[in-house]
Amino acid sequence: MAVFEGNFTQTGTMKFAFVIGRFNDLVTTKLLAGAQDCLKRHGIDTDPAGSQVDYAWVPGSFEVPMVARQLAISGRYSAIICLGAVIRGQTPHFDYVAAEVAKGIAATSLQTGVPVVFGVLTTDSMQQALERAGIKSNLGWSYAMSALEMASLMPQVFSGKANAANNGVMFGTQTASLPTAAD
Ligand code: INI
């Protein structure tokens, strides 16, 4: 039998996409910077002109799952990192946006088999959000770590081989069984 476990060392062939909400971009740009720092320090070229990381900006967290799903279906990525900041206001709007983005990201991951990281802060105040986006710690860093781990783990799970040599490679032929854009 086998132990399937991700690692953080064989990152040369990995490809990632970020989907980032512009709403509350004071927070989301800081989450992005933290995540990029983590990827860079694990050997990944985060330059948008390079071959390892793509970036998609969307108006707000509500739109994040739609774009994440299309990117996942493309089969081009080892993992997708979704970043957003949903901050409670005076109305119930927060609850609708937070619920939909969480459900949408979970569904995208489950339906496609591509790891989709839930990097959306849901906080009661801007202060709480900023504390988690760099003032105290930067959760963007942790979200990138989750992406690296899952990008390394999933090929092992798919192949049934622990520490498979194809660590982190996108799912290649397995995209044939993914839902299509028309689904
Ligand atoms: N989008 C966010 O990412 N965070 C929020 O806090 C937020 N609030 O509170 O309204 C928010 N709203 C915009 C939403 O995500 C959509 O972009 C908009 O409704 C258009 O579909």
Helix content: 25-40%
What is the CATH H-level superfamily?
Lumazine/riboflavin synthase
Head-to-tail CA distance between termini: 36 Å
Largest sheet: 4 strands, parallel
Brief summary:
It contains five helices and four strands. The protein is α/β, with parallel strands linked by helices and 183 residues long. The longest helix has 21 residues, at 139-159.
Could you characterize what this model shows?
The protein has 183 residues and is α/β, with parallel strands linked by helices. The protein has a single domain, classed as 3-Layer(aba) Sandwich (Rossmann fold). The chain contains five helices and four strands, in the order E-H-E-H-E-H-E-H-H. It has helices at residues 25-40, 64-73, 93-112, 126-131, 139-159, and strands at residues 16-21, 53-58, 79-87, 116-123. Strands 2-1-3-4 form a four-stranded parallel beta sheet, sandwiched between helices. Helix 1 (25-40) links the parallel strand 1 and strand 2 (53-58). Helix 1 crosses helix 5 and helix 2 (64-73) packs parallel to helix 3. The longest helix is centred in the last third of the chain and has 21 residues, at 139-159. The model is unreliable at 172-176 (pLDDT under 50). The structure holds 5-nitro-6-ribityl-amino-2,4(1H,3H)-pyrimidinedione. 5-nitro-6-ribityl-amino-2,4(1H,3H)-pyrimidinedione is lined by residues 21, 23-24, 59-63, 84-87, 89, 93-94, 97. The site of 5-nitro-6-ribityl-amino-2,4(1H,3H)-pyrimidinedione (INI) has 16 residues, from strand 3 and helix 3.
